[in-house]
C-alpha cells in the first residue's frame, strides 16, 4: 500500500495524497541471547518534536552501532498529521530523557539523512552532522543541508545545480559532476 500511495495519480490529488497514512512507529528491540527472549518498547511523541515517534528512514551515529545508543534520526512524513507535504527531520531520544528535537521549514521537502560523526567520533553520541538533500518547493530548487545533530539547527547549506526530487533510499553519484 505504501508504494501504491506514491503513484503520481495519488500524489497529484490533494485529497487522496493527504488521506495516505504515513504514520511509522519507532520500536526498540532488546534481544537477550542467553535467555532467547525479545522485548520491544514503543515511544510517544513529545512537545518539542510532535512527530519524532513516527520517524522513518532511520540513521544513527555509526560509531554506536552494536553498542548502547540513545539517538535515532529520520524523516517524519505528514508531521502535522494532516498534510503529506509537512515533512520534518527528527531526532528521537530512545533513552527517554526528553531530548527529542526536529528541523523543518515549510515547503521544503527533506529526504533521508546521513549521519556524519565529528572526526574521531566526538565526545558525545550526537556530536556530528546530518547531511541531506532538500527540495525547496518555493524556489523550485534543491540544496544540501548540514544540520547539527545535537541542536538540530541547520549550520550550512549548498545549492545543488539540479532539482533533487523526494526519494527513498536514493544515493547516486555521477562521475560527470
UniProtKB/TrEMBL annotation:
Secretion signal, residue range per the UniProt entry: none
GO BP term, example: carotene catabolic process
Cofactor-binding details, from the entry: Binds 1 Fe(2+) ion per subunit.
Pfam families the record matches: RPE65
InterPro entries: Carotenoid_Oase
Keyword set, alphabetical order: Iron, Metal-binding, Oxidoreductase
Binding site for Fe cation: 169
Required co-factors: Fe(2+)
MF GO annotations: beta-carotene 15,15'-dioxygenase activity; carotenoid dioxygenase activity; metal ion binding
Family: Belongs to the carotenoid oxygenase family.
Protein name in the entry: Beta,beta-carotene 15,15'-monooxygenase
Species the sequence originates in: Magallana gigas
Amino acid at each position: 500500500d505504501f508504494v501504491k500511495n506514491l503513484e503520481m495519480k495519488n500524489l497529484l490529488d490533494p485529497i487522496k495524497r493527504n488521506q495516505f497514512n504515513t504514520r511509522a512507529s519507532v520500536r526498540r528491540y532488546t534481544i537477550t541471547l542467553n535467555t532467547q527472549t525479545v522485548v520491544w518498547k514503543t515511544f510517544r511523541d513529545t512537545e518539542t518534536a510532535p512527530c519524532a515517534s513516527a520517524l522513518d528512514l532511520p540513521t544513527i551515529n555509526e560509531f554506536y552501532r552494536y553498542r548502547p545508543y540513545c539517538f535515532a534520526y529520520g524523516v517524519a512524513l505528514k508531521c502535522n498529521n494532516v498534510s503529506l507535504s509537512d515533512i520534518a527531520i527528527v531526532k528521537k531520544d530512545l533513552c527517554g530523557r526528553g531530548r527529542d528535537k526536529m528541523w523543518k521549514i515549510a515547503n521544503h521537502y527533506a529526504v533521508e539523512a546521513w549521519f556524519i560523526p565529528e572526526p574521531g567520533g566526538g565526545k558525545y553520541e550526537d556530536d556530528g552532522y546530518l547531511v541531506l538533500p532538500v527540495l525547496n518547493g518555493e524556489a523550485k530548487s534543491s540544496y544540501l543541508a548540514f544540520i547539527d545533530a545535537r541542536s538540530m539547527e541547520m549550520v550550512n547549506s549548498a545549492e545543488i545545480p539540479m532539482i533533487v526530487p523526494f526519494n527513498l533510499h536514493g544515493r547516486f553519484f555521477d562521475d560527470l559532476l
